[in-house]
Amino acid sequence: MFSQYFGQYLLSKGCLTIEQLKAALEYEKNTKVKLGILAMNAGFMSVDEIEKVHKEQARVDEKFGEIAIAQEYLTSDQLEILLSTQKQGHLVLSQCIVDKGFMTLTQLNTVMEAYISSLSLTMDDLKAFDEGKLLNAYIHFEDTLWHEIYTEYISLLLRNCIRFINDVPVIHIEKVDENYLSDWMVSQRIFGKFSMFTSLASNDTDSLKHLAELFNKESYDSFDEYAQDGVSEFLNLHNGIFLVNISNNGVVLDMVPQKIKNHVKLDELPECFKITLTWLWGSIDMIIY
Amino acid sequence: MMNKSKTILICDDSITSRRKLRETINSKGDFTIFEAENGQKAIDLYKTKMPDLVFMDIVMPVKDGVMATQEIRALNKKAKIVIISSVGTKENLKKALTCGASDFVQKPWEDAHIESILAKLI
Asked: Is the minimum CB–CB distance between A219 and chain B shorter than 8 Å?
């Protein structure tokens, strides 16, 4: 799951395009971490030393570890540690990005250091997977007094994606100044101490259908009544949990029943944000204002 | 196995939630189950079927679950109604108890919780 967050960071910094990130995440499924990446991550070898070993590997039929020990870049104890290191998401993604040629090892090393520094994390934190810090590092709602509420709402949405569909999306947040059009929209209004419009929208019914399938753990032939109900219930459950969390902080909120509409146009939207949720299997907008 | 003659009314605007709850209940014994998609339909069905137990969602169109619970309890002070909702706030818990609900289940529910309610209430 960590790779999604690191991928999100790379996306937000413009290091990768969304297409490259999706390709790397897809490739990640069947990739093992190479020792060079592990050695760099552990601080046992420099990028220069790793590249020298890679060049040597191209010349002779020897394993990475054998060459690194022969060149005294690694001790046998360090090699043992690397070999026994558990598979870690961000390392796998790093491997995929380098393999795909999207970034060089040096570029990746630089951005990884910046990432860790931006989160005020240590490598131990990273291994312990401090999700809260990881999420807050890239959820930014600019120019709005609602920053805190929206950040909490989207952090929870990502946690609920993990909890209920076991697949966290890459997100892209942008302010919607113009009208917003969508073929399908499931919406729900929250009201009370403050009011908030929430909706899941997409022109792609396959994406909506797939969300419903993952949530309900069953298949649908089309974006039919049951699939629509699945998306609707996912939003309702997410909003329900949001209300419980907010209520625990003393803010009483309620919500109206969800509505499903097609060919929707939203206009005159003050403080409206579109959060594009992208999974390997599709994309859905979360609209909040 | 529990008694086959017992009847249960499930009231939820989500067709999937109704089906899943029906499947959970059916896995715990043989019951006759009725379904309603909003609070008003639940009241109408309650009058004709007089079920032994009602599972009631809160946020629904036409008439919400709290109002429907109050009206059913006005019809029958001994009606057994369990609120089942994703909005398990302290305020809703209070509302549920005030309007006479016997229990509160937070969605997504644990099957064991439903089983214990069935064993306790009918």
From this structure: no
